[in-house]
Amino acid sequence: MDNRMNKKRMKIQLFCVFMVTLSIILACGHYLGSNNKKSEQMKVRYTARMTVSRIESRLDKYLERADFIKNIIEEKYDFDDKKFSQTAALLYDKKDVIEAIELAKDGIVGNIYPLKGNEPAMGLNMLTNPKRKKEAKIAEKTGQYTIAGPYELKQGGIGALLFDPVYISENGEKKFWGFVILVIDWDKFIDEINLSNLEDAGYDYQIWKKNLSEGTEVTIAEGNSKNIKSPLEVVCAVPNDTWYFEIAPKAGWITKMQLFIGTLVAVSVLIIVYSAFWQYFVRRYKDAVYAENIKKAAKEAQIANETKTRFLFNMSHDIRTPMNAIVGFSELLEKHLDDKERAADYVAKIKKSSSFLLSLINYVLEMARIESGKVELKSEITDIKVLIDSLNAVFESDIKNKNLKYTCKCNIEHGYIICDLTKVKEIYLNIISNAIKYTNPGGSVNVEFREIPCDREGYATYVSKVEDTGIGMSKEYLPHIFEEFSREHTSTETKIAGTGLGLPIVKSLVELMGGTIDVESKVNVGTTMIVTLTFPIAMKEQAEKQRKEVTNRIIQNVKGKNILIAEDNELNAEIAMTVLKENGIQAECVADGKACVENLAQKPEDYYDAILMDIQMPNMNGYEAAKKIRSMDGRRSKIPIIAMTANAFEEDKQRAIESGMNAHIGKPIDIKKLVLLLGSIFDD
Q1: Where does 142-172 show beta strands of DSSP type E?
Q2: CATH code for the part of the protein at 44-253
Q3: Which of 110, 449, 542, 549 has its C-alpha lying 20 to 30 A from 331's C-alpha?
């Protein structure tokens, strides 16, 4: 009885061991197979995304050439057939993918470069041609570039057409002018994006799109295999169209070798289970942790690579745009040096592009300093109302030029705080500047500063709200507003240049100060930005003490300085020299701008510390004298120049600054203001 019971018990035990072992084998096989498939899919998806990114960047690169010609036409420059050929020749490269550049006014091809070999396309109406009209009309309607093809071209060969629509302003309205068309050699395009490398790497692939005219599938490119098994699909974003990229390993997601290895591992697991059940689970746990770490590391590496690629792409795009303008207008400037009006216009555009390029570089450096943790906050006593007044002064001319309805309300209890004034000002300058920039003429911008209760003793919390009636942002874009280089509205859409780094810097500075920033926006309604910051409260006495210390320091700065006065009125000159000498400042006087320039040139470079320049003078006025001084060599060109004149209108101040002067002070002279102004210049 006992033997039979033991035998039966042993059979049950063996059966249980067998079932447990079988379950483990099956589980391990499935786990390994699933892991192998997921790993392969992750690698294939990354390869597909990099290929799609390469396609998108190439198309953007080609579009820049079309946009260059497009901008010339939209700005209504004199652009005849000869100038088109000259400009196109600069953009054309025989070895390049671009086979030809065409102009199609009203949709009809009237200019082609090079013409040789492309004659059959001349006179072709893109808006009526059966194979091209669908894409052409879509480009006309949307205002975005559209790609037609690939198909057999009129001039022979397989190619595609990139339609870049052109609109000109007439009587305040945009009117469709026609197209700038790029003829793309499709074989060269496929070679350029290195699709053949996918075949060499063991992948089957296909790129296709839907025919907009017929609704059928159009193959853009494909590998040797016509039958792709269980492909991954990645969408390639093309304006007014969608390209689908399908890819799969030729050997399948799980190979026979992988199945063999899986089985071998499962058998090994079986042996481990029989020998040491608990050791198996310990090892399995360690393997799982290791696999997770590897997966995590691979994901982090992928994200880092994608971030690097995106950063380099955006930087390349944003730097190339103003550089193209600088190069293009420089070449045009060389050809039109005799035309002063046109040359001045080109110089102005070059300066504008250079300024934007410099601001982009400065923003990138600022962002790099913030991310590296090298930004430190300073502490200084600040008068909030003075801060607000200075912000209003900065934007006064922009508000006036755009005829905006601007209000600024301030409701605070504690007027003095301790903060990093420069960084705080940078936050508000960016936010208010954006509100003004993206608000159409006649709109409104409202700024409100208010203090709310704070739980921390000795601290005050301030909420600033900037509300505008501008173009707004979509709900889809809002989560990305603080991402670097993120811009919903490009300069092509709005004619407003931007770096895409201003708001990320603002958010970083706000968070560095322990504050918060919130955004609400609706398209064509407007945007509201709310910044909440908490600062230590400063007493008025502290502020006054600090102000006195600064004033005393500034006054001390001017003592012993040597000032050159250019003033044709003897009485005014005598008064100026007397009050300056009473404040410990040495002074010399000349009667006009010409004598001022000559006197400065004859003296040693560091003889004079600053110049007080009258404007209305005989022989040479103050503006002319300032320009002459700024054209000198060495330290003389850097000497501070202060306009000292009865011309105290805003346009007079602006003209003084444009001539090269550092500051402006009106007559009659307030000696205290003059001394403080000189001291602040020397303090800098």
Answers
A1: 146-152, 158-170
A2: 3.30.450.350
A3: 110
Residue with tokens 């600024």: 408
- % of the chain at pLDDT higher than 70: 71
Q: Given the structure tokens 């005219």, which residue do they identify?
A: 213
Q: In this structure, is the dihedral angle defined by the CA atoms of residues 217, 223, 229 and 230, taken in order, positive or negative? A: negative
316 Cβ partners below 8 Å, 6+ apart?
none
Nearest-angstrom CA–CA distance, 661 and 665:
11
3-state secondary structure of 478: helix
At residue 493, the pLDDT reads 47
The torsion angles phi and psi of 258, rounded to 5 degrees, stand at -65, -40
Delimit the domains of the chain by residue range: 2-43+254-304, 44-253, 314-371, 380-538, 550-683
Assign domain 550-683 to its CATH superfamily.
Response regulator (3.40.50.2300)
Rounded (10°) CA dihedral 583, 588, 590, 593: -70
Tabulate helix, strand, coil % of the chain (nearest 5): 50, 25, 25
pLDDT in tens, 545-579: 666 655 566 666 677 788 899 988 888 888 888 88
The CATH architecture annotation of domain 314-371 reads Orthogonal Bundle (1.10)
Alpha carbons 599 and 580: distance in angstroms, whole number: 20
Place 479 in a pLDDT band, splitting at 50, 70 and 90: confident
Supply the Cα-derived Rg of the chain in whole angstroms.
Answer: 35
Instruction: Tell me the CATH number for domain 380-538.
Output: 3.30.565.10
DSSP state, 665?
A: E
Mean pLDDT over the full length of the chain: 75
